[in-house]
Each structure stands twice: as structure tokens, then as C-alpha cells.
Amino acid sequence: MVKICCIGAGYVGGPTMAVIALNCPSIEVVVVDISVTRISAWNSDQLPIYEPGLNEVVKQCKGRNLFFSTDIEKHVSEADIIFVSVNTPTKTRGLGAGKAADLTYWESAARMIADVSKSNKIVVEKSTVPVKTAEAIERILTHNSKGIKYQILSNPEFLAEGTAIQDLFKPDRVLIGGRETPDGLKAIQALKDVYAHWVPEDRIITTNLWSAELSKLAANAFLAQRISSVNAMSALCEATGADVSQVSHAVGKDSRIGPKFLNASVGFGGSCFQKDILNLVYICECNGLAEVANYWKQVIKVNDYQKNRFVNRVVSSMFNTVAGKKIGIMGFAFKKDTGDTRETPAIDVCKGLLGDKARLSIYDPQVTADQIQRDLTMNKFGWDHPIHRQPMSPTGVKQVSIAWDAYEASKDAHALCILTEWDEFKTLDYRRIFDNMQKPAFVFDGRNVVNVEMLRDIGFIVYSIGKPLDPWLKNMPAVA
């Protein structure tokens, strides 16, 4: 029986291994992690992450050929194929701070693999890593090999949170990069054979190592660039009276461009986009490509601009101050159908409003109160370190309360800010909400989910990103 071990039981490792186990009943799959709490959650009925369809997949294979364990060394030692899905946070100090990836966890995983291995291994990069990481890993393993052979493969994930299980079952492509040597090609084939259980062969792409590593960074950079492009257009739409939804629709009808990732919003978030672009910028700078680095930096600058612009709209619309005013925050996750808050634009928006001394009442159907408080008190990039390296019991932000539902969050509020596109925000009883709010009552829709005309008819003053401005907002500065 082929044995697979995955180091790291997070958003990538857990779901990916569950789908492999389901589709490959003849393969034993073990997911290992140093976090006892996280492994206990995977072994319980309350999984540590929320992802539609994940629960059902895990239930079908757990205890049959899918296992979760903290006995890392045992399972790494026994495995034929080792997936490494550990954190690669952005460095916060030293060379490349604020841009370069911190490979501390990757390096310690590689050293541990070398220490415990007694047979040849295929080591698969599943985390997003800088180009040429495989070379560093190879050096660590070969210099500590004790006669054991290792093949390093790059198999980046292209999952979108909220649809990760669907993406795993029907991927656009599976990318496997390896050394173009006889042993390297054999290792590529071994991993290809795993995916071939359910992925059509024409969707499994093989490349050299560096192409696979760079393809992941490039894909995320291109997607983030599209969002920043449409968000830049949204600012121009507001200035000119155009409607960004209509502009996006017209642009997306061009078959060369296509309609995906053209929804204007308060900004992109998630664990990958900003981190991977910063990583790309650093690699470009290290290779003397300053102009290329500056090009990609601009994608992040526009994203930060969009979040700042949103906060400034809120403050300037409400008589230039939100001090002491209650603002209901609708949604804290970075997108709907996930509880993930990593790099969510809600953090920067909330911090911006708190900076002007607003009182916030935050509601999100999937994010816990503890997580929200933790995010609002954490240092930048702190989220990307393992949980045991993060502050355990954050001191709560005094001006923040967590609401049980949207109606509680909006009661006696001066304004609502919609920051996640949860479906339930489209069907709320906005008449009831209006009646229970302070007047004038404002709605700042950062996701373009509400029916603007209907809300204006009720009596709200509505700001919707990239849409023609409410008469109230005209001649007010969009940027401080």
C-alpha cells in the first residue's frame, strides 16, 4: 500500500488529503501537525475549518484510509510520499522583511524528514514557496541523507476558499514540477498516478521545478491584478457617474478578457494574494528587475488605496467624524462561504474606523468573537505563524462588540458597512433595520450586494462601490 503523509493540517493540507483519500481508497493518507488542538478538531465532529462539502468528505474516509495525528516522526518515517504544507509567512525582520517569505518552518520540516527517514522519499512542496526553494530543500536533504535518496516535486495548490472541495474534485489543472532526470521523471509519474485516480490526464500538467514554483505566484498575481484593475475603475466610475457593474459586464463580454474576477469591492484579502505578490516583488528585486517589481507593487498599492478610500467615504459622509458613533460591520471573513479572516479587508477598514474612535458592532456567520478580537490586535503578518506563536488571549478592543446577528449589529447604529458578500445580507429585512437605526441612516456597501434603489426608497443614504453617488455624497472627498 502506498503511504502518503502530509505535514500541516491547515486550509490546504486537510482538504487536499481528504479528497485524495476519498478518491484513492488503496492509499493510506495521514495528516500530521504539531498543534494538538487542531488535530483533535480534525478527529472530532467540529472540524477546525469551514468549507462547504468538506465535512462529508472527511466523514466518508476518516478511520478508513484517512487519519489525523500528532505523531509526526512516525508517519513521516513510514511514508512514501510526503506533502509539506507548512506556513511560509512573510518575514517581519531581517533581510527582505515585509516582502520575502520566511522559510523557517519549511527548513525545520526538511531537517526533520532527513532525521527520521529510513527509506527513499518523494517530498512534495504543497505550500506556496519562492522560486528556487526546492534547491534549498534538496541541499538540506542531500547533505543529511545517510544514503537515502530524495526527489523534490513542486505541486502548488490553486484552491479558492469557499469552493475548495469543488476545485479539488474538478481542478482546472494539476501542476507537477520536478527534476528532468530519470529519477525526477519517475517521481513525477508516481504523483501523477495518485491524481489520475480522478483527474483527466490532459488536466495534469508537468513542468520543470522552477516553472511550477513560479506558476503559483504568477497565477495569484494575475488574479489580484484583475481585482485591483476593476477597483481602480470603480473610483473613476464614482467620479464620473458611470456604474462599475455595467462597465465590468461590458469588459467581461470580450472573450479575450472574460467575466471572472471583475467584481469591484472594498479590496482583496485571503492568505495568498498580498503575500505572494510581495514575494514576487522581492524575487524581482533580488534579480535586478526593479521595473517589474514596481509594476507588481502597484497592485498592492491600489488594494490599500481602495480600503482607505472606503474608510474615508464613511467618515466624510457622516459629518467628517465617526467618534462615539456605533457602526454595524456586516461580515468579517475575507469572502463568503469561509471562516477565514487572513488579510481580510475588514481588518484595515475596522482599524481605520477605530482610529477615528468609532464603536463597532461586528457580525459574521462563521467567524468567532475570539478570532475577530485576535485579528484586530495582531501585528501585520502575525496571522501567518502557527497558532502557538500567536497571542493566546488577546486583550479585547474596547470599542468593539461582537453581535449574534445582523439585526443586533445594526440596532441603534448610525451606519452599516457590508464587508463580506454573505448571501444573507441580500435578503435582510432592511425596513426593520432602518427603523431601529439612528437617523440619518447610512449603508456603505463594500461588496455591491444590496439593492441600492430599494434601500434609498426606505430612507437610507447608500454608498455602493463604483456606483453613481447618492446626492448626499456628491462633492464630498473620496480620499482624505
TrEMBL record:
Enzyme class label: oxidoreductase
Oxidoreductase listed as a keyword: yes
Pathway assignment reads:
Nucleotide-sugar biosynthesis; UDP-alpha-D-glucuronate biosynthesis; UDP-alpha-D-glucuronate from UDP-alpha-D-glucose: step 1/1
What protein am I looking at? UDP-glucose 6-dehydrogenase
Q: In the record, which residues are listed under signal peptide?
A: none
Q: Name one Pfam family in it.
A: UDPG_MGDP_dh
According to the UniProt entry, the coiled-coil residues are none
Gene Ontology MF term list: NAD binding; UDP-glucose 6-dehydrogenase activity
Family, per the entry?
Belongs to the UDP-glucose/GDP-mannose dehydrogenase family.
* GO terms for cellular component: nucleus
Gene that this sequence comes from = LOC107943824
Active site: residue positions: 272 (nucleophile)
GO BP terms: glycosaminoglycan biosynthetic process; UDP-glucuronate biosynthetic process
Keyword Cell inner membrane among UniProt keywords? no
Under catalytic activity, the entry for this protein gives:
UDP-alpha-D-glucose + 2 NAD(+) + H2O = UDP-alpha-D-glucuronate + 2 NADH + 3 H(+)
Binding positions for NAD(+) per the UniProt entry? 8-13, 33, 38, 86-90, 127-128, 161, 272-275, 342
Q: Which SUPFAM superfamilies match?
A: 6-phosphogluconate dehydrogenase C-terminal domain-like (SSF48179), NAD(P)-binding Rossmann-fold domains (SSF51735), UDP-glucose/GDP-mannose dehydrogenase C-terminal domain (SSF52413)
Alphabetical keyword list: NAD, Oxidoreductase
